[in-house]
Design brief:
Blueprint (H helix, E strand, L loop, with lengths): L6 E4 L7 H14 L3 E4 L4 H8 L5 E6 L8 H13 L4 E5 L2 H5 L3 H17 L3 E5 L7 H13 L4 E3 L11 H10 L5 E5 L5 H10 L3 E4 L2 H15 L1
Parallel strand pairs: 1-2, 1-8, 2-3, 3-4, 4-5, 5-6, 6-7, 7-8
Helix pairs in contact: 1-2, 3-5, 6-7, 7-8
């Protein structure tokens, strides 16, 4: 398992500095991580930091609570694309999920998807699985599967509970094979990352990417 290619090396703190973003990007390039995930204002500069490497630049929309209007999410999506973000992690409207307003959620994804597809970007829809009921997770998987999103993502990292092996396994059970799962929120050890990957995650969102790689190397050394 090439752990590095699973990792979205992430910094989304409200007080993130340019130096933080530069350090994140340099680490991502050094370890050949799948992507960096940065706040929207840092997308352009992150693109210059990662350059022509295989590391993609991701950013967030509707973050972190998901309840911004569809029009706001459209505007954020357009700006992220203009700034050349490769991947967009969009928070679903959690209020709509909890209130069972599936028509609103369908309108939201139906409005955003053409923008993403027309520019051949990757979209990951964050559903905050740690605070949803099991049937809500299943309904989300069914909805986003119909629209062919690239990933369904467990968490923002801002709720009281992040990724869990159980939620990833449930999502994998109810998503087509072609739709990936990104597990994020509280992934701070190599052992936990491994468990999430074995449950079906193909991306790991974490601010501890370097620590995970060092743990993985140590575990490999111990095995041999």
């Amino acid at each position: 398992m090439d752990l590095n290619r699973y990792i979205d090396h992430t910094i989304l703190k409200p007080l993130t500095t340019l130096e933080d973003v530069k350090k994140l990007c340099m680490e991502a390039v050094e370890y050949d991580f799948a992507a960096v995930c940065v706040p929207p204002p840092f997308v352009k500069i992150a693109k210059t930091f990662v350059g022509s490497t295989t590391t993609k630049v991701a950013t967030v929309t509707g973050f972190p609570f998901g309840y911004s209007a569809i029009e706001a999410k459209v505007a954020e999506t357009v700006l992220a694309i203009i700034d050349e973000a490769d991947e967009l992690d969009m928070v679903a409207n959690l209020l709509a999920i909890r209130n069972g307003d599936w028509a609103y959620l369908e309108k939201e994804i139906a409005t955003v998807m053409p923008l993403v597809r027309n520019k051949q970007r990757v979209i990951k829809v964050i559903i905050e699985s740690g605070i949803l009921l099991e049937d809500e997770i299943i309904r989300c998987c069914e909805l986003y599967a119909r629209y062919g999103v690239d990933f369904v993502k467990t968490s923002t990292g801002y709720a009281e509970k992040g990724a869990s092996v159980e939620a990833v396994a449930l999502m994998r059970q109810h998503l087509p094979a072609g739709i990936h799962i990104k597990a994020s929120g509280g992934v701070r050890t190599f052992a936990f990352a491994q468990q999430l990957i074995h449950a079906g995650a193909t991306r790991i969102g974490t601010s501890a990417g370097v620590a995970l790689m060092k743990e993985a190397a140590q575990a490999h050394k111990t095995e041999n």
